[in-house]
Amino acid sequence: MSEEVQLSTPTLVRTSMEDDDDTTTTATTTKSSAESPSDNIKIDIPPASSDSRRLHSRIIHRVSPHLRSDTNNRRMFDPVALSLGPYHHGKPDLRRAEALKDHMLHTFVSDSVAADETKDKRFFHNQILKCISEIRGHYDRAAVDSFDDESLSEIILRDACFVATCIADPFSLPDLIRTHLGNPMTVYATQDLLLLENQIPFWVVNRLLNLRFGEEEADAYICQHLSLLCLGSSRNLTRLPWKENDNDDEEQLHQHQPLHLLEAYRITLLQRESPNKLSTLTSTDSYSSRTYSIRTLYRYINLPFRSVTYLQRKGIYFGPSSTCYKDILFTSHWCYGMLRLPIDIISEHSKSFFCNLIAFEMSSSDDLAVTSYVNFMKSLLESPEDVKVLREKGILFSDLGSDKEVVEAFKEIRTYGIDDCDSFAYVKKQLDEHCNSRAKTWVAELIHNYFHSPWSAIALFAATFLLCLTFIQTYYTVKAAN
């Protein structure tokens, strides 16, 4: 009789030593218990370097096909004016921008040579060429296999210099685009910089800035750029958002550094001015940290959506919190509530920007903060009246033609039912409890109906005063007659 042997699923075991170079991965195939331990097969795989592990863990993903197939997202993910990186390089309708990138590369190198004669184009090209294997690892293999090291280094150098110049001198970009590509392309070129598939590894851009200006000045340029375009002022940031403290070494900084410019924007928009300011929103009442009945759980994660005007009728007022998309705070008082929302500006670029951030979170991020923020705002904005309230409170700003266009812009941003139930769970729960409180809502409706303007309040007090006078007059008339 033949002997039956059952092989269990291979198990991968990673053992870590103090030195990363000693890290080994062992694949062990275990047979049935009838066989001796000596029959186990062990294969030692050579350890990978830290750079190799990083490049395989951080990939600039392509947009998911089902996002592209959505007709609502037409032209949200493809560049119109210029290509950056290998994904869209060489497309006929983008070749006009190559002359612009050559001009900016020449300017970047000329200014560098003026400061240091050794830092010419060949110097920067060699800096890119030395890291070309790691750069390849950041892209889909099919997109970079057609380029040899020299040609890929040339593409990355030209495109990285373009991004570096946009960071160091953002005010000169519109004039250069207008000169080389025409006036209409100034809008699209800015939008193309923040497309998911149109990105250069940020550490490459940062290295070029460091070589050109020095680390301290390069960091100052990056802070100024992010402050200006994300926070609306060039003086907001004094330190890189991903630099936790000044004592971070190069390895720690590399781990926290954004993958590309789009992620740098995302990190900036999610950074709180005071880290402990809203700690209760993330540490208390998350549905995953408690035990609920299935009915309570369903109700908890499926709280009703309420618009701004509806919440106003329930006695809830609105105010700005900060520029951080995580800073949504609700405070309930005895007869009213205060909902504070992040300050944001909605423009022609907003739909493309949010669509690409959501695509990034879906592809490579465990944190769905931007997606959750968009879902929360979509639930609040149902009509132009809702936008008007937030605009008057200094929460939403827009350069679109009307409040209706702002509502439509948010409605057109698709999140495909993806959300983080823990995000703003405490806020949603508090809003639901406030709206379901009869005492609070009755007082709120009284104030909303009779005290919504000073004239109605004056009229109510005048009528009450006249009623009191009438009562007093009647009382003394009856008393005198007796």
In DSSP terms, counting alpha (H) and pi (I) runs of 4 or more, how many helices?
A: 23
Low-confidence stretches: 1-56, 275-292
List how many beta strands DSSP finds: 8
> Could you tell me the radius of gyration in angstroms?
30 Å
How big a fraction of the residues is strand? 5-15%
The average pLDDT score comes to 79
Strand order within the widest beta sheet: 1-2-3
- Gap from first CA to last CA: 125 Å
Largest sheet properties: 3 strands, antiparallel
Q: Bin the helical content.
A: 40-55%
Number of domains: 4
Helix-strand makeup class: mainly alpha
* Morphology: elongated
Structure description:
The protein is mainly α. It has four domains: about 10-45, no CATH class; about 65-270, no CATH class; about 290-310 and about 315-430, no CATH class; about 450-480. The protein is about 50% helix and about 5% strand. It has helices at about 50-55, 65-70, 95-115, 120-130, 130-135, 140-145, 150-170, 175-180, 185-190, 200-215, 215-230, 250-255, 260-270, 280-285, 295-300, 310-315, 350-365, 370-380, 385-390, 405-410, 425-435, 440-450, 455-480; strands spanning about 10-15, 25-30, 40-45, 315-320, 330, 335-340, 345, 395-400. The strands form three sheets. A three-stranded antiparallel sheet has the order 1-2-3, with no helix packed on it. The protein has a three-stranded mixed sheet with strand order 4-6-5. It has a two-stranded parallel sheet with strand order 7-8. A hairpin with an 8-residue loop joins strand 1 and strand 2 (about 25-30). Helix 4 (about 120-130) crosses helix 7 (about 150-170). The chain is elongated and about 115 Å long. The termini are far apart.
